[in-house]
Specification:
Helix content: 10-25%
Distance between the termini: 7 Å
Strand order of the largest sheet: 6-5-4-3-2-1-14
Order of helices and strands: EEEHEHEHEEEEEHEHEHEE
Strand content: 25-35%
CATH superfamily: Ribonuclease Z/Hydroxyacylglutathione hydrolase-like
CATH architecture: 4-Layer Sandwich
CATH topology: Metallo-beta-lactamase, Chain A
Length: 250
């Protein structure tokens, strides 16, 4: 399986609008971040986790012509705001929890209306709980984490897991993440945050799980310059960057 980081930024992206900090003014392409999303490629099938406001540009940049399914972590706009552009793929299966499905039906009501206008997204909602499900023969595990008080879905496929927008992983969910060797986990900044892991907290999760290779995503300009942060990270841990790809065996 190939994993591609489509976007590695927080809800405002980097650079942020109307900000003149050193990170937002950086000319290092590693400091340019679109909203967080990843793509899993298994053979000819592509699964994308989250479709934020930069979904269109991410699909164009990655050269995606066919999409097997969308998996949504939660309904915040930086994770679902680009779903309308999925119309390019005709029918799209969308996997999410019941709370997110309710928000999608409200925000994209025109896609579910009887006798809808031709060319609108054809969203095939598939509500999942805290369990495993299959997309063709691909086993996907939906794992509940908490974004302050909001339940969010993390996803695991084999030895890979994606955990974003979380500041708490319940004990039962940690057990379901055991054995993961490749982890993408969100941490917007070094300082503590109400609803996200800080960098140190994310590193603690990585250490507890014994993950061999980890990438920090959902990164804001408050994290600092890529070059400075990268030097401070332990072995096996890197900041995610847009466009990065890596292979997950098995």
């Amino acid at each position: 399986m190939e994993v591609t980081i489509l976007g590695s930024g927080t809800s405002r992206g980097v650079p942020e609008i109307a900000c003149d900090c050193a990170v937002c003014r950086s000319t290092d392409p590693r400091d340019k971040r679109s909203r967080s999303s990843v793509m899993l490629t298994v053979g000819e099938r592509r699964l994308v986790i989250d479709a934020g406001p930069d979904f269109r540009e991410q699909m164009l940049r990655a050269g995606v012509r066919r999409l097997r399914a969308l998996l949504l972590t939660h309904a915040h706009k930086d994770h679902v705001g680009g779903i309308d552009d999925s119309r390019a793929f005709n029918k799209v299966e969308v996997y999410c929890d019941a709370l997110t499905a309710k928000a999608i039906r409200k925000d994209y009501d025109y896609s579910f209306a009887p006798g809808k206008y031709p060319g609108l997204p054809d969203l095939q909602l598939r509500v999942v709980g805290e369990s495993a499900f299959y997309i063709d023969e691909i086993k996907v595990e939906a794992i509940r984490v908490l974004h302050h008080r909001l339940p969010v879905m993390a996803y695991r496929v084999g030895k890979f897991a994606y955990v974003t927008d979380a500041n708490c992983i319940p004990a039962a969910s940690m057990r379901r993440l055991e054995g993961v060797e490749f982890l993408v986990i969100g941490a917007p900044r070094r300082a503590r945050h109400l609803s996200h892991f800080s960098l140190d907290e994310a590193l603690e999760v990585i250490d507890m799980l014994g993950v061999k290779t980890a990438f920090i995503t959902h990164v804001s300009h408050e994290m600092g310059l890529f070059a400075d942060v990268e030097r401070s990270l332990p072995a096996g841990v890197c900041l995610a960057v847009d466009g990065l790809s890596f292979q997950v065996p098995g």
